Amino acid sequence: MNFTSFKSELEKLKFGKKSDTYLLIGCEDFENENLNSSKLISTLKTKLKVTSDFNVLKLHFDQYKICFLKYENFDEVAVPRLLESININLATGNIQKLSYSKSSNLSILLYKEQILKSTVSKYTKFSNQLNQIDFNIQLDTITKENSWKLLLSVHQLEISKHSISQIEETSKIRINNTRVKNYHHKQEILDYGFSQSVLCLLENSLLNKEQTLFDYGCGLENDVKGLQILGYNTFGWDPKTKNDGTKKKADIVNLGNVLSNIEDPLFRSKTLQTAYKYSKSIFIVSCDIQSTSLKLQSYGDGVITSDNKFKKYYSQDEFKQFILDTLGTCEPIALAPGVFCLFKDKSQHQKILKKSCIRSIEHFKYDFSNIEYSDIVKSFLSTAFKLGRAPLENEFQNLEEVIKEIGSIEQGIKVLKKEIGEDTYKQIHDIKRKDLLVYLAVSNFNQRLDKKFLQESILADIESFLDEYDTAYEQALSLLYSTADPQVISTLCEQSEVGFKDEKSLYIRMDQHDQLHPVLRIYIGCCERLMGDISSFDLIKVHKESSKLSLMKYKNFNNDMLPKLEMRIKINLGYQKIKLFNYFDQKHPQSLYHKVRFFNEDHKLYSSFKKHSDKLTELDITIEDHGPNFTDFQEVLNCHGYTNEEDFNLKNS
Question: Which has the closest alpha carbon to 315: 340, 336, 283, 338?
């Protein structure tokens, strides 16, 4: 049977799910058709011993090719996932068997009744339910499991067999994570596979649903589709995959990891300039960051990767300078390694700095529900408590009603002090004052911050906690200059009440750094200005005398007894240079020994960490030179009767 006859028979079929290039059809239904192509499929199925759980056929119109597809539990699961495929090129005789079981994002099949000849009522009923829901997106664009999960989470839906229903309020997803804090469906966002630049937009609340986003160089539209699922107004263009896409100005333009793939330096610069011109408010651009562990063949100003493609890796400071030299605009703001943002409205940048420098006061708790005032006044007191001062009109909408009830805003603050106590109020005031100095110092790193770009709430903070701007500026500048004095840094490290100290450094957990002296917080904040968000790292190492800071990220740092080092970043604040060390591809990365030194006794796993550390001490395992490597540690374990690291951890935690 030739391809022309094969294609002709497929085009005459009255059932199946058709696209421009292929037909999806139930395997059993197609075999029962009295067609030469059906007989061909049956013969191949017998010859290749294709089992009955390969339940769907993919028959191509554009080439002489068929695929047997295995979807999981096709009859029981409303939206089955693709687990395996057998791909046969009938023109060449080439056969390829693929398993997708290890994929983190499997393909799915929506509207599965469309591939069958006969009607199955439960399939049709489920699809009818789907069609009644306003998803604000075409469901035929949802072809991957993570997209489907994200869509369900956004609309608070769950599926049971072939029925879809609304999730009750009490069971909405609430997952704690340092990234993407503003979404109840944050885990689905992280699992979806957004680019680093889009994640930065989401986690910094830089994108809202009234704005437009243009993804310049959108590739396969992964970011575009994901953002549309979340309800954002997004469109994309790509010279290869979306050449017919819209190219027009947008509030935000994303140029995500495009530049690193462009071989010609002049075209690279031209692409950056062209994309930037489309942005009205925010321009975000990312690249691949150079890792010292990468050893690749040089080519032009980049390298040739293992899959024989060009790649231009940048260092963080090199990429920032490239943006400055090419665009000649305002300072690019680092949001993450390899991700920079340019704000045409400088006040927007201050929102990011404020978030990283101004702490919440969650450890101060007070219940205002039992005091003898109206709900409006209780709400006012709660707001003033969090702010540490009287709220502005745009921070609390019912100030007039508060004034009617208690006489004045000043009287409201007196009530607050009386309720929480003068000492607590002073503590909150002191926290806010220190945070504000840190914020102002970090804001003035590299260039002076013009007062006109400060948010109204920050100006109110300055008036409440630091009297007036010029005085606050001088105090903050004095603290900023102190970060350049190694003796000051060394002394403050020695005096720190948090963290672990050795002769040369202070180590602190990421969740402890806001407990440090303001000068050390400014030191870390300036490093964050160079590199971007550091919240995903686990440990901070402040070098006492070298103007350097290191960040370490470990696999499962909080729970593993011997977490493995995944990434290390060293920042030279004096020279404003950053080095990245990646250990993801190492078979046996360095373990973190005696982890207990980084935790307090009130930590829930402290006793387990302590027991484990004591046993390491018995084996003469120290932290000198970071402890033994994998081979040496294995030898020590074997000498003491342990099979391997897992055996040791299990018996000593």
Answer: 338
Q: Considering only 254-263, 375-384, 446-455, 488-497, which range has the smallest mean pLDDT?
A: 446-455
Distances from the Cα of 629 to the Cα of 284, 588, 622, 633, angstroms: 40, 8, 12, 6
CA distances from 147 to 33, 141, 144, 226 (A): 35, 9, 5, 7
Report the C-alpha gap between 231 and 183 in whole angstroms. Answer: 13
Domain 208-344: CATH architecture, name and number where available: 3-Layer(aba) Sandwich (3.40)
Give this prediction's pTM.
0.77
166-175, 414-423, 523-532, 632-641: segment of lowest average pLDDT:
166-175
pLDDT tens digits for 382-415? 999 999 999 999 999 889 999 999 999 999 999 9
Residue boundaries of the structural domains of the chain: 3-115, 208-344, 357-477, 484-582, 600-651
SS3 assignment, position 18: strand
Q: Could you identify the residue written with the tokens 């006012």?
A: 380
* Separation of alpha carbons 220 and 497, rounded Å: 50
Residue 294 to residue 291: CA distance in whole angstroms: 6
Structure tokens at 630: 């994998």
Nearest-Å Rg of the Cα atoms of the chain is 30
Among 62-76, 295-309, 607-621, the range scoring the smallest mean pLDDT is 295-309
Name every residue whose Cβ is closer than 8 Å to that of residue 273 and which is 6 or more positions away in sequence: 326, 327
